Amino acid sequence: MTRTGERAVKSLRTPTWIARIEASDGQVLGAGVLLARDRVLTAAHVVRPGPRYVVRLVGVPGAVAATVRADEHVPDHDDGLGGRSGDLALLRLAEPLPAEHATRLYRLATAHGPVSMYGFPDGHDEGRWHDATLLAARGRDSRVQLRPVTTGELAAPGFSGGGVVDHATDRVIGIVLSVDRGPGSVFTHMSPTETIISHLPQVADWSDGAEAVDPRLRTGTPGRAGRLDIDFATELAGWFRGEGWPVLVTVVPARGDRAFTLERAVTLADRELRTHRNTSAYHHDPPETVPPAGAHDLALDIKGLTAAQVTDRIAERLGLRDDPRPERLGALRVPLAAVLVGVDQAAEPDALLGLLDRLARQGARLLLVFRRRSERGKQAAESLVRRPLHDRWSRLHAELDRIVDELGPGLDRLRDGVLPGPATRQLVEQAEAGVRRTRMLRSWVAHSPEREREPGRADLLFTFEDAADRRRQRLEQAIGVLDARLRRREELLGRVGAEWPLCRARAAAHGDRVMEAYRLYEHALSLLRHTPCDLERAEAAVERFVDFCSAPAPSTPAGPTEPAAPAAPGASRKESAP
Question: What is the band of 550 on the pLDDT scale with cuts at 50, 70, 90?
Fold first, then answer.
């Protein structure tokens, strides 16, 4: 994609699956995606059941009439959980178009990286490409935010319903729905393929890509196969929301209430499987047991699978082609979120645990389910949860010690030598306040009860780590600023010391100028030696002294000269020690 919005596709032409949707009077309403010879996918707010529309394919002569059936029109609506849902529609063409013009949607797991979208903003009836980056928000409304690469590429209304193309796979992974119109907003919303299928199941016939949830881990019909384990469901929903330690190791037998609870959570957390039908079946359940949509990338029963096969399945869901090595799985901008069931029944348990350890160190969120209690499960919990969690708390304590015992005193020593400048005074004050708050935090961490360090409360650790990191950075910045000011003070002292002998010799030949020079010299020197040094005042005094010495002497009548000024500086007043 060039900066003007024109995408450099391999074919060097705009794909013919891009549809422009018009009203009967020719007004451009939005965009769409030709999925079959007689079907165009678009946003529901672009069209409605009843009227006849006109569909034109980019680069294809002619136009086709189209209508929308009520059962293929899903208006934008509240999902009952505080989010938005729907806004999808299928247009039926009066005459089928050549199949070679159509494309297929592609299921892609964690949204990440650059994409392009095609639309028809005002003044561009021929259409244009815009660049954006998927933000991978796992929201309960099943939508994903897109941030434009430039402010000029924020999607306008003419982009509604337009296809979104992932650069890594060159596949259509969803359609544009709407644009945030709040003050300063820079986001566009996209409905990904799996959400589209959840509202319009027939679209699955025109979609490719691996499904997120293994069929063996899905709930069946809304009729329950077991009772909900409230505590376990709440724990699972918290993990799906991104709470607590990123790796959760648990034991779930193949049958029973815990198995039902796990399957329910995995199903509701998937964009494609989460429908109004199954969410309605659980509307009496406590809200804290309901996970957000799109909360995982993959839920897989790995019984009998090798580590390489698990890697391949993960890579397939992430859209990694040709080279699914484990190290590539950590190169994503957004970490993997995976549910792996039957870890103790894998074909290569040791190799699998090695893969899981690597993924965890790369930032993946992993829900690891063992079918029975075993030493291997204890080993996984120790190596992936307890030990790294303990190490993180230890590193936090060491960081707090460094802030309080090293960086704080270092800032104080510099602060005793020089005052911060007007532009950096607030920074230094914030750094000093950060040391005081860190001292209290260190005391709390040292004396907090052990339950505060449990995996489920790891958000507390992450909050403390973020605070410590901000305070450390602010301290280092403040120390750097004050250190630079002290070095500048030393430079000015050297400049004044070097200038004085020359200035004294020149001034001695011009009568009373020698006393004025000495007065300016003495004033600059006293400001530089006073601690903490006000560098701005001292620098101004130095400049006045140097400027006086450099200026040509005024012509004066001949007369007796004043006695020479003392050679040794500072003899006339007591000064602070440097």
Answer: confident
- pLDDT above 70: residue 204: yes
In-domain check, residue 60 = yes
Burial of 191 (C-beta count, 10 Å sphere; 0-12/13-18/19+): buried
DSSP string, 60-96: S-S-EEEEEEEEEEE--EE-SSSSEE--EEEEEESSP
pLDDT of residue 402: 96
Q: What pLDDT does 480 receive?
A: 96
466, burial (CB in 10 Å: exposed 0-12, middle 13-18, buried 19+): exposed
Alpha-carbon distances, residue 106 vs 193, 210, 216, 274, 313 (angstroms): 6, 9, 22, 18, 16
Is residue 504 domain-resident? no
CA distance 35 to 195: 16
Residue 578 falls inside a structural domain: no
Query: What is the rounded CA–CA span in Å between residue 517 and residue 506?
Result: 10
Q: Whole-angstrom Cα distance, residue 501 to residue 513?
A: 14
Amino acid at 332: L
Specify whether 131 is located in the same domain as 202: yes
Residue 564 is given by DSSP the state P
Whether residue 258 contacts residue 293, with contact meaning beta carbons closer than 8 Å, is answered with: no
More confident residue, 516 or 472: 472
Residue range 330-341: mean pLDDT, rounded: 76
Predicted local distance difference test score (pLDDT) of residue 362: 86
Residues 126 and 228 in one domain: no
Q: What is the pLDDT of residues 240-273, one digit of tens each?
A: 999 999 999 999 998 889 999 999 999 999 888 8
Same domain, 174 and 323: no
Start-to-end C-alpha separation, the chain: 60
DSSP code, position 418 = B
Is the residue at 508 inside a domain? no
- Would you say residue 403 has pLDDT above 70? yes
Cα-based angle 220, 239, 177 (whole degrees, multiple of 5): 70
Query: Domain containing 219: what range?
Result: 215-373
Amino acid identity, position 274 = R
Claim to verify: residue 57 and residue 188 sit in the same structural domain: yes
Choose among 297, 403, 306: nearest CA to 355: 306
3-state secondary structure of 51: coil
Domain CATH for 223: 3.40.50
Q: Are 92 and 162 contained in the same domain?
A: yes
| Same domain membership, residue 175 and residue 55 | yes
CA gap 251, 262 in Å, rounded: 11
**Which of these three, 439, 467, 482, is where a domain ends?**
482
Q: Which two tokens stand for residue 379?
A: 């080993």
- 271 in the same domain as 225: yes
From 461, 482, 503, the end of a domain falls on: 482
| Tally of domains within the chain | 3
Band of pLDDT at residue 558, cut at 50, 70 and 90: very low
Whether 192 and 307 share a structural domain: no
Q: What is the pLDDT of residue 104?
A: 95
